[in-house]
């Protein structure tokens, strides 16, 4: 017999007690496992992993849609780079008495230089994120052709620099493995501190490079298997949920003032894209963080279902 529960607003089904082929009775998955799966599927980190997976397997035309360009993730990247640079600097200072083979110290210095060149790219990504989210005059800035050309030129240059650095780190990772594990240099006996530092940096890079593969195993193998066993769709649990009344109430709202009837009737701000009705004088309208406006009653109902803009799909919680 199939049972279902909608207490959380997310459908799932599971079998109750049933008999197996040999006549024994099998119990349904424990409530603890079910609750654990539900908590994981609704966790913010699980939703982030799904966003990363869809971004990597979808269109990458918009830098702003990259989940790795959030302020929190950029901060984590900056901390990781700062820790690596500080550890390398400290180890080079404290291991002056060590006499490693030339390739080992060369690899460490080259890796540190690559980290230093990554910092300007990290700052550019943060600045780009700030312009998208915090600058209300962004549309006016991009409407200026000269500013738009400069912006595209900087984006092209930074993207090329990022691709070059990624290629450098990939080649340097292979070179580091050859130099560190080559017994001819005797690095561990002659410079144990630098050798351990190289091993740690290589391990960090190995984890970073294997992240897409581990993400594929998690979302394409482990999650479907767990969902099959428990009878609960974990992918549905991580789907976008609606905004709360408190989040909606903090969005700006005012009464629409009808402009001159001789103005451009094709203006995109003259009608609500949800109900497709033109705004009337003194109607309540609401503006989202992406600067798009809608009827208050229309967008409030929309946001209670899914917390993103109906036009540009920008998440309300960004």
From TrEMBL:
Classification from the root reads: Eukaryota, Viridiplantae, Streptophyta, Embryophyta, Tracheophyta
Where is each RING-type domain found? 272-313
Q: Which residues cross the membrane?
A: 72-94, 106-124, 163-181, 201-226
Alphabetized Pfam families for the sequence? zf-RING_2
Q: Which keywords belong to this entry?
A: Membrane, Metal-binding, Transmembrane, Transmembrane helix, Zinc, Zinc-finger
Origin superkingdom: Eukaryota
Classification via PROSITE patterns: ZF_RING_2 (PS50089)
- Gene3D superfamilies named in the record: Zinc/RING finger domain, C3HC4 (zinc finger)
* Keyword Ligase in annotation: no
What's the protein called, per UniProt?
A: RING-type domain-containing protein
Q: Which PANTHER family match?
A: C3H4 TYPE ZINC FINGER PROTEIN, RING_U-BOX SUPERFAMILY PROTEIN
A GO molecular function assigned to this protein is: zinc ion binding
């Amino acid at each position: 017999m199939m049972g279902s529960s909608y207490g959380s607003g997310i459908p799932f089904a599971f079998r109750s007690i049933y008999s197996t082929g040999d006549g024994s009775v099998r119990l349904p998955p424990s409530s603890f496992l079910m609750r654990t799966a539900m908590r994981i599927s609704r966790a913010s980190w699980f939703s982030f992993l799904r966003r990363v997976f869809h971004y990597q397997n979808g269109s990458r035309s918009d830098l702003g849609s990259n989940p790795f360009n959030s302020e929190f993730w950029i901060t984590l990247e900056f901390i990781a780079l700062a820790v690596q640079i500080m550890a390398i600097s400290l180890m080079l200072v404290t291991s002056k008495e060590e006499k490693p083979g030339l390739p080992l110290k060369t690899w460490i210095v080259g890796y540190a230089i690559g980290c230093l060149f990554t910092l300007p790219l990290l700052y550019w990504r943060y600045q780009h994120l700030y312009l998208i989210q915090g600058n209300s005059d962004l549309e006016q800035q991009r409407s200026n052709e000269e500013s738009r050309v400069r912006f595209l030129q900087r984006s092209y240059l930074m993207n090329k620099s990022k691709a070059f650095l990624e290629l450098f780190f990939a080649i340097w990772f292979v070179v580091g493995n050859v130099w560190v594990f080559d017994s001819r240099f005797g690095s561990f006996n002659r410079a144990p501190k630098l050798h351990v530092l190289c091993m740690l940096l290589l391990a960090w890079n190995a984890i970073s490079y294997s992240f897409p593969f581990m993400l594929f195993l998690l979302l394409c193998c482990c999650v479907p298997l767990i969902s099959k066993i428990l009878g609960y769709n974990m992918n549905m649990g991580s789907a976008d949920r609606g905004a709360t009344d408190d989040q909606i109430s903090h969005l700006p709202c005012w009464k629409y003032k009808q402009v001159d009837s001789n103005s451009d009737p094709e203006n995109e701000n003259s009608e609500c894209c949800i109900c497709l009705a033109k705004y009337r004088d003194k109607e309540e309208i609401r503006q989202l963080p992406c600067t798009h406006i809608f009827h208050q009653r229309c967008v409030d109902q929309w946001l209670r279902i899914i917390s993103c803009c109906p036009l540009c799909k920008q998440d309300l919680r960004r």
